Write a sequence for this structure.
DNA sequence: CCGTCGGTGGCACTTGGTGTCAACATGAGT
DNA sequence: ACTCATGTTGACACCAAGTGCCACCGACGG
């Protein structure tokens, strides 16, 4: 997010070396973890193996990730923030279905481009979807996204999220579409285009999203 | 499900004492667990405490429940099977929105009646919704329900669940409504009527459930 | 009365995860 | 150059969840 703020009287970039080191360790850890997990499966890999491969102590691992699952799920965590921001940025008059479509499309677009990052994202998604422990944590995150989308949507429409079912229903339904697309994309080994899939999904659910809210 | 099968030449009911003992231990365990968890919160209670209160060994606990979370979530697990069965039992010609409404209403109806069981169900739901670890496991279960509902719905409509988004979208959307109702019911301390809430929720999402599937 | 079998407890063990502390690097001020 | 504050790390001890193993016991059938 921040773009190398510069301290006022030195020429060094103020992405303070310490921060770059932190990023380095984090990358090294995720790298080692993803590589091992992809090969041996989630349950067959211990944290000790991961930290051994990354060359840090177990204690350090848990300073970077809250749990063994997190090192995988974190990879997709940006999606949540991205969706909320995208929704907040949509024009106020836009129909809910269109606004939510754009909000959900953002993160999926990152999967669409066939880059290195996208290739790994596919592996990560497949790993998550077939590993119960990872799926559980992922759904937990997604529940948070749902809360955020619900709040944003309620604010957008001037509704109280506690006295109207609509915002929660709409947010949940949009995420259901997101899930369905992810599932299908993963199942087709990335062959199908997420952008096109999400379009088809929203064609189905749009009537519900744009239904007039209960009075 | 089974209704006391009787062995052919004895007068004793063949719910073999052993089975009744098993049920007894299971009940004792859930009883002790729920009581402790409700008071001290999920994280502050160890399984050692639970088994001490129930008078069995820790080893036995894990013969009955796969995890500490399970002893709570199991409580709502019947809902999943109930929904699938209910959906399968609906007449073939019924519109998806109506069939899914009935499927989802079954388990919620159990909460509606203000009995002892319902009172405890409310506590359990509230505990789950405010405890991340429990929520994660609950969502994991719900993901299984979604798979089952998806399969049942696809079968019902003669669609291939892997080449059509609709079944998964419809199942997920119905469960979203279920979640929204559960959330609201829990938030109102059981004051609001689940049956009425689920009706309102389905009024919103029905247009999507009954939309004509992609060709 | 005896053998089988399912359920149980006890115990050792692995693994995820945390608290604490001492060691060390960095960076700023003097 | 000295020093102090801050932040990161590794080592160690520790707790709780969960599993494998085995010996034991009570119920049931012959």
């Amino acid at each position: 997010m921040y773009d190398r703020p510069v301290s006022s009287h030195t020429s060094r970039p103020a992405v303070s070396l310490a921060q770059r080191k932190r990023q380095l360790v984090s990358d090294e850890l995720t790298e080692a973890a993803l590589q091992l997990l992809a090969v041996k499966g989630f349950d067959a890999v211990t944290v000790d193996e991961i930290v051994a491969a990354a060359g840090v102590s177990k204690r350090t691992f848990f300073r970077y990730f809250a749990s063994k699952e997190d090192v995988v799920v974190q990879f997709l965590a940006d999606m949540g923030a991205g969706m909320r921001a995208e929704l907040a940025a949509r024009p106020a008059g836009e129909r809910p279905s269109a606004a939510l479509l754009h909000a959900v499309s953002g993160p999926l677009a990152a999967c669409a481009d066939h880059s290195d990052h996208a290739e790994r994202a596919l592996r990560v998604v497949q790993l998550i979807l077939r590993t119960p422990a990872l799926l559980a944590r992922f759904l937990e995150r997604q529940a948070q996204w749902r809360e955020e989308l619900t709040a944003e949507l309620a604010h957008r429409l001037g509704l109280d999220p506690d006295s109207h079912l609509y915002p929660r229903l709409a947010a949940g339904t949009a995420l259901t579409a997101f899930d369905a697309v992810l599932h299908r994309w993963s199942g087709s080994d990335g062959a199908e285009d997420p952008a096109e899939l999400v379009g088809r999904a929203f064609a189905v659910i749009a009537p519900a999203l744009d239904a007039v809210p209960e009075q």
